[in-house]
Amino acid sequence: MVINEKQLEKLGAFEISSEMLKLAKKNQKSNVFLNAGRGNPNWINTLARLAFCRIMEFGVRESRLTIDIGDMAGYVQTNGIYNRLLKFLSPDDRREDKFIVDSLTYLDKELDLPLDEVVAEMTNGIIGNNYPVPNRILKYSEIILNKYLESTLYDGEKLADSTDLFATEGGTAAIVYAFHSLSENHLLKPGDKVAINTPIFTPYLEIPELNDYELMELDLGSHEKDDWEIRASELEKLADPSVKAFFVVNPSNPGSKAFDRKALTAVKHAIEKNPNLMIITDDVYGTFVSDFKTIYSVAPHNTMLVYSFSKLYGATGWRLGLIGLNQENIFDKKISELDETDKKELATRYEHVVVDPAKMKFIDRITADSRSVGLYHTSGLSTPQQIMEDLFALTHLVYASGSVDSYINESRLLVNRRYEDLYKSIGAKEDVSRTNAKYYSLIDIYKIAEEKYGSDFEKYLEDNFEQVDFLLKLAEKNGVVLMDGVGFGSKAGELRVSEANLPTKKYKVIGQQVLDLLQEYHESFEKKNK
């Protein structure tokens, strides 16, 4: 199969990876196909899923109490439903049943929620017999999920009661919705300067360049020499009032580094000089760092929080995400300060779905925009998906002992073992800092080449091969798929490895395959220089 490397380089990182898959599956050495290019985890949380199935079964039984004709059942009655659920469950015999009972006890004792209403929301939600009402997020889901975010991401800051949430189809949808509404509400206009911490998840690099947005990017770079930690001096650039927004993945993808306390302090200081700065922080990997602290917790009024359950709970196919905004935020403030022409335009945009568009919160505008406004009344994440989010969250809220969650700890240990195996097999220096999530790695092929074979060989690689050549040969000859770091905004020669989606023993194999291919390049180099 012949692939034009120049044409390939024009594609996005994930599109290049798709082309690599075709080569790797028919690799020349007939090796086992290993795809370490994507971040889909190869583990799942079982407890929440089993509880979901039990509540589904209960919901069908409840529905038959009102109508029961063949396969047709009726509606769910709220009054007394909590006690009926308790009678249905067998907590002494089934762990998932005990989890449901423990969850309801937690919601009663810790959050003081009315249990008939909570059980009715969960039951109706799981059987999916109604539109999402409210359409931004279910009433009790918002309370539960706020407590989860506060426990896992805020590091002691109490923001659950002052945060509005919008449940979305994964973090990806949250990003798309955010950019769209920032543009529609004139918060970002063509030519505006936006700061991006690179390397970063590719859509953050690609979306600003699209004709829909035409934004000007300011690169706040993290570098390998700093173990991908962003320097406070880079964040000082946010103090410039010409910088309208800052987009960040924290911990980073692909660098896997969380902002340390110095970086968070630098963001706070920048906002003091640039108080209108809008921040979007995607914190999907936050739970893989102990004592993680989100930017939202130090700058809640300037920050939109994006979160997804997909990585930690092995739920990429479920599409479970959230957008969080503080009830007092810069986005609403900036909308209130728009000129009269823009305000009039927005009033026309939203006047058919709310009585007073001027008072419509930005997070509700995002919800409406997600369904082209006209279908606002049918917007919202499907109710079974929302209840799945609740159950994942409750496994943490109910069973975490202080800051210790055994499931989260096992997830961290798993990626840590894979990270160590990869680095030891390839002979690279490990980053053992607390802020390293270890979900991804960036492997510098040129650096490894220089360390093993000298600077002349490293220069030969750089001068004689396109940046994707090594990746192509790794796939075509050895059956290993990695991702091109350049597509994430890193320099040529850096390859992204996911420590999430392959059996643990395969990471030693990947390291060895990289070294074997590098040796082949070196043999060609030596023949050429004899």
Brief write-up:
The chain is of the alpha/beta class. The protein is 46% helix and 12% strand. It has helices at residues 5-9, 13-24, 46-63, 81-88, 95-109, 115-127, 139-153, 170-184, 202-206, 232-235, 261-273, 295-298, 330-336, 340-350, 362-369, 383-399, 406-426, 445-453, 455-464, 469-478, 506-528, and strands at residues 34-35, 68-69, 72-73, 163-169, 193-198, 216-221, 243-249, 278-282, 303-308, 320-326, 440-444, 480-481, 483-484, 494-498.
Biggest beta-sheet profile: 7 strands, mixed
Low-confidence segments, ≥5 residues, pLDDT <50?
A: none
| Spatial order of strands in the largest sheet | 4-10-9-8-7-5-6
Task: Tell me the radius of gyration.
Answer: 25 Å
**What structural class is derived from the secondary structure elements?**
alpha/beta
Work out the helix count. 21
Strand content: 5-15%
What distance lies between the first and last C-alpha atoms, to the nearest angstrom?
31 Å
Q: State the helicity in percent bands.
A: 40-55%
Instruction: Name the overall outline.
Output: globular
Q: Could you tell me the number of beta strands?
A: 14
